[in-house]
Amino acid sequence: MAELRSELTKGGREFIVILMKKIGIAGATGLVGETLLRLLEASDYEITDLRLFASKRSAGTRIRFRDREIEVREVTAEGFEGLELAFFCLENELAREFVPEVARFCPVIDKSSEFRLAPEVPLVVPEVNPEALKGHKNIIANPNCTTIPLVVALYPLHQQFGLKEVFLATYQSVSGAGRAALEQFFYETEFIALRQKPDTGGSPFISQIADNVIPVIGSIDEHGVSSEEKKTVLESRKILGLPELKVNSTCVRVPVAVGHSLAVTCRFDRRVEPAEARNILNKAPGVVLKADSELATPAECRGKNDVYVSRVRQGATEYDLNLWICTDNLRKGAATNALQIAQRLLGE
Ligand SMILES: NC(=O)c1ccc[n+]([C@@H]2O[C@H](COP(=O)([O-])OP(=O)(O)OC[C@H]3O[C@@H](n4cnc5c(N)ncnc54)[C@H](OP(=O)(O)O)[C@@H]3O)[C@@H](O)[C@H]2O)c1
Fold first, then answer.
1. In degrees, to the nearest 5, what angle opens at C-alpha 91 toward C-alphas 87 and 92?
2. Which residues form the active site (predicted)?
């Protein structure tokens, strides 16, 4: 948490006093919920009332948090009564059912995509559009795990050069699809190591993921565009406040446990010098720019809160810039961003 706080104070910004005392996490047994819980545990927040929720299957199990054990409850809206803040790390259907109900009691930071594009719901990346939180109606959406690193890196460049078009190819890790997907990946990997064909019946993926690459994430619409690709397009436009921004996106699942990567070409209104772009990225909040001779990789960014950028170079014209971005999808792609939103919200 010291890390997160220093993020927010980087560049001489004012320190925000945060009191996080009564918190609920829905989906606390999932990958994002667990990551959030461990970030809170390592923080110096004094949390007096921490309520953990999951499915009926997990109800009654106990999760260690600092010096106590907390019993997991089945999600109900009433379970959040009396809390100051709720984090929702559940699938869309469950978010649709519970988030508006829980928002009657306290602000909800929702990790699902259910409310992200609703005009009255702020979709927030604190390095980019913290002002969107003003006047919120107790539902705040946390963007997609690929959109977050994309806009963190592109926003400072946009301010200088004027973003016109984005060409994006993603290399998304299996943990982005949840715990069952990660387990399937580990299981398949063991079979592949033994030179045997893994059983993919019951897999959350449409085909084998170990020793493979799947060029579709989510469902495909009548135009051949995947739901994940649409998220990167529509969410980037909303967060950057650029409703006409052209984004050409191809989202791909790769056999990496944790850490999403993005190959990006940005086309600007003004000429862009790679050296100037590097200078901007070097000072950008939430960005770690690698030295020219170094590479950002998913393995390196795992367990970290920043967006890593490397291979910044001129594109096909002097208006184009190519870059390579990596981030931990469970941290800045999900839990870290949610926690940073909470810090902004409670420091309001
Ligand atoms: N993974 C990522 O990198 C990532 C990034 C950005 C956004 N997200 C989004 O964040 C949300 C959570 O993702 P995740 O990766 O953490 O998923 P996950 O690992 O599959 O965890 C899902 C959570 O939902 C709970 N759950 C499932 N069915 C339930 C039910 N019927 N009632 C109540 N709780 C239920 C599970 O509880 P049990 O353990 O009891 O089943 C678990 O706590 C999703 O909306 C996802 O799209 C994920």
1. 100
2. 145, 260
Q: Is there an atom of ligand 1 within 6 Å of 258 CB?
A: no
pLDDT value at 340 more than 80: yes
Distance of alpha carbon 8 from alpha carbon 20, whole angstroms: 16
Over residues 160-170, the mean pLDDT reads 98
CATH topology identical between 2-143+334-346 and 147-329:
no
CATH topology of domain 147-329: Dihydrodipicolinate Reductase; domain 2 (3.30.360)
Is 90's C-beta closer than 6 angstroms to any atom of ligand 1? yes
Domain spans in the chain, listed from the N-terminal domain onward: 2-143+334-346, 147-329
Q: Is the CB of residue 36 below 6 angstroms from any atom belonging to ligand 1?
A: no
| Best residue among 38, 71, 91, 205 to mutate for probing ligand 1, ranked by most atoms within 8 Å of CB | 91
For 67-84, write each residue's pLDDT tens digit. Answer: 999 999 999 999 999 999
Please state the φ and ψ torsions of residue 123, each to the nearest 5 degrees: -115, 110
The strand pairing partners of 189, in sequence order, are none
CA 20 to chain centre: 21
Q: Check if 170 has its Cβ closer than 6 Å to any atom of ligand 1.
A: no
Contact status, residue 37 vs residue 25, Cβ threshold 8 Å: yes
Note every long-range contact of 228-231, with CB atoms under 8 Å and residues 24 or more positions apart, other chains counting. 228/144, 228/146, 228/170, 228/172, 231/113, 231/116, 231/144, 231/146, 231/147
Ligand 1, atom 2, residue with closest C-alpha: 176
For range 224-251, the mean pLDDT: 98
- Residue 292: partners with Cβ closer than 8 Å, 6 or more residues away: none
| Number of the ligand 1 atom closest to the C-alpha atom of 175 | 1
Q: How far apart are CA 280 and CA 272, in angstroms?
A: 11
Is the model's pLDDT at 18 over the cut of 60? no
Q: Write down the pTM of the prediction.
A: 0.94
